[in-house]
Automatic annotation (TrEMBL), chain A:
Native organism taxonomy: Eukaryota, Viridiplantae, Streptophyta, Embryophyta, Tracheophyta
Pfam families: GCV_H
Cofactor(s) the record lists: (R)-lipoate
Domain Lipoyl-binding: 57-139
Subunit annotation: The glycine cleavage system is composed of four proteins: P, T, L and H.
PROSITE patterns linked to this entry: BIOTINYL_LIPOYL (PS50968)
Protein name per the record: Glycine cleavage system H protein
Organism in which the protein naturally occurs: Brassica napus
Cellular localisation: Mitochondrion
Function of the molecule: The H protein shuttles the methylamine group of glycine from the P protein to the T protein.
HAMAP family linked: GcvH
Cofactor binding: number and manner: Binds 1 lipoyl cofactor covalently.
TrEMBL record, chain B:
Functional pathway: Protein modification; protein lipoylation via endogenous pathway; protein N(6)-(lipoyl)lysine from octanoyl-[acyl-carrier-protein]: step 1/2
Species the sequence originates in: Brassica napus (Rape)
One BP annotation, GO: tRNA 5'-leader removal
Protein name: lipoyl(octanoyl) transferase
HAMAP family: LipB (MF_00013)
Keywords: Acyltransferase, Transferase, tRNA processing
GO cellular component: mitochondrion; ribonuclease P complex
A GO molecular function held by the record: lipoyl(octanoyl) transferase activity
Keyword DNA damage: no
Record-linked InterPro entries: aa-tRNA-synth_II/BPL/LPL, BPL_LPL_catalytic, Octanoyltransferase, Octanoyltransferase_CS, Pop5/Rpp14/Rnp2-like, Rnp2-like_sf
Length: 166, 378
């Protein structure tokens, strides 16, 4: 039975129809959790942002899990360059399906670059959350904060537990 | 206030009933997720898609104890026999053969929880392990406390005042000082814009608004321009998304379902919007609007449903930025006799509480007093 459920949720996620697929009519099932990607080499926050630390520059964006739960992003609000961001404080917002969601910064620092492509193509966050959909580049003011974030395995487990709890 | 009737069933799950299970090493660990999937599967197989769809609204596995194999399952009163029989027919959870046995049914989760506690205490006593005070307290804590929705009925509220109130409630909710809260109200004629500030969709100059008796406000919510006014009930849920396990998209979809469910009470077949047209539609006409803001996982703003607003106000905007679609109201879509506005508001609240699986809906006494303590806007 477990295999059948997995197969039908795969079919649903891939938008294939199959005679065994029953889960398309069951909105209560959360099927996306099987397929959110989590990349190695990045650090993750419990509010579903990722940080890529490269020497003195940290790139920040939202994870695949987050963009999937948001839906199609139609608008992104980002801070100005040279503004400050603080750990676990809001630095911007995304709008999707008539809902604006705040994005919290996983680390503190100064914004050195902002992804201006997102103004015209906010959908990059959905299609490429870890690459073209990056949001801001920050000069970290306190590198120790990176240690408090989760690694890829921890984050995957965190997402699974969050999704399974309901 | 009991808006909808549930039944809570206390079940015991026997694992591997053929074999002798005195030793350690149970073949499957029972969790809310695998039990819920097994039961839903059984409903689908035995009662079809229609049966499953009608049960799904209130179906919820409230509590599972993998050690004592007890679980509490909630279902609506109308469907509980169906769910009960489906549970009896469940043959396996995961790969392990199981048999469900009903121990108790009650109408509220508290009675069920007491029965469960009594049963678990007996089991522990039987198996020779005494239960200390500490362990009993721990088991009480483990049982999920019923999810309560607190409702504030506010009558007609000025828009800015409602924004201030929502801000206050969002920080209270974030600090966990209040439970999930719902504001049920209406606004005087007001146009509002979302975060994208799409004021090109306002078709009359701002200066003229006063002459038609309306205000304009810029907000941080998602969505485009919309109109709020008398005879348009508005619900602002202040919920913790994490505690209900929703992301932005599933939350908005649940708001849509609440309005669709409400429309069906009057025989109006509403549907969710197509991609990029979030909201609730009857055919090509929009009857319900949604605009939400999520801040640190707490929601504010919410939904507005047209019962019988003055439709002329909608002519001054491109509603929600969608140019070629009409706006409609419940009054226009049905010939049915509409009850009083108070009843309609309550029905809308009940539909939302049902879709979001709240166990208890509590109407807060005299919340209008809270409005008066907010600082005046000068």
């Amino acid at each position: 039975m477990a295999l059948r459920m997995w197969a039908s949720s795969t079919a649903n996620a891939l938008k294939l129809s199959s005679s065994a697929s029953k889960s398309h009519l069951l909105p209560a099932f959360s099927i996306s959790r099987c397929f959110s990607s989590v990349l190695e080499g990045l650090k993750y926050a419990t509010s579903h942002e990722w940080v890529k630390h490269d020497g003195s520059v940290a790139t920040i964006g939202i994870t695949d899990h987050a963009q999937d739960h948001l839906g199609e992003v139609v608008f992104v609000e980002l801070p100005e360059e040279k503004s400050a961001v603080s750990k676990e404080k809001n630095f911007g917002a995304v709008e999707s399906v008539k809902a604006t969601s705040e994005i919290l910064s996983p680390i503190s620092g100064e914004v050195i670059e902002v992804n201006t492509k997102l103004t015209d193509s906010p959908g990059l966050i959905n299609s490429s959350p870890y690459e073209d959909g990056w949001m801001i580049k920050v000069k970290p003011s306190n590198p120790a904060e990176l240690e408090t974030l989760m690694g890829p395995k921890e984050y995957t487990k965190f997402c699974e537990e969050e999704d399974a709890a309901h | 206030m009991v808006g909808f009737k549930n039944r809570f069933m206390l079940m015991e799950v026997y694992l591997d009933p053929e074999k002798d299970l005195l030793g350690e090493g149970t073949p499957v660990i029972l969790t809310k997720l695998n039990l819920s999937e097994a039961i839903k599967d059984s409903i689908l197989v035995n009662f079809g898609e229609c049966g499953l769809a009608s049960c799904l609204g209130s179906f919820h596995v409230a509590y599972v104890n993998p050690v004592t194999k007890l679980c509490i399952v909630r279902s609506s009163r109308d469907e509980h026999r169906r769910v009960w029989s489906a549970m009896t027919l469940v043959r396996s959870v995961g790969n392990c053969p199981v048999v469900f046995n009903l121990l108790d049914i009650s109408g509220c989760i508290r009675a069920c929880r007491d029965a469960a506690l009594k049963c678990e205490t007996e089991k522990f006593n039987q198996s020779g392990k005494g239960l200390s005070e500490e362990e009993i307290r721990e088991m009480n804590r483990k049982m999920r406390t019923p999810r309560t929705l607190e409702v504030w009925k506010l009558g007609t509220v000025n828009y800015l005042k409602s924004l201030k109130l929502q801000d206050k409630l969002v920080s209270e909710r974030k600090a966990n000082r209040i439970p999930d809260t719902l504001l049920s109200l209406q606004h005087p004629p007001t146009y509002t814009l979302g975060k994208r500030r799409t004021d090109h969709n306002l078709l009359i100059p701002e200066a003229e608004l006063k002459s038609i008796g309306a205000e304009l406000h810029y907000t941080q919510r998602g969505g485009d321009i919309t109109f709020h006014g008398p005879h348009q009930p508005i619900l602002y849920p202040i919920l913790s998304l994490r505690s209900i396990g929703f992301g932005a998209r599933s939350y908005v979809e649940a708001l849509e379902r609440s309005m669709i469910e409400f429309s069906s009470l009057y025989g109006v077949k509403a549907r969710a919007g197509n991609k990029c047209e979030t909201g609730v539609w009857v055919g090509d006409r929009k009857i319900g609007a949604i605009g939400v803001r999520i801040s640190s996982g707490i929601t504010c703003h919410g939904l507005a449903f047209n019962i019988d607003p003055d439709m002329k106000y909608f002519e001054h905007i491109v509603p929600c930025g969608i140019a070629d679609k009409e706006v409609t109201s419940l009054r226009r879509e049905t010939d049915a006799q509409l009850p009083s506005e108070e009843v309609i508001h309550e029905q809308l609240v009940t539909c939302l509480a049902k879709v979001f699986s709240y166990d208890d809906v509590v109407v807060k006494e005299d919340p209008s007093a809270i409005l008066n303590t907010l600082e005046d806007d000068d």
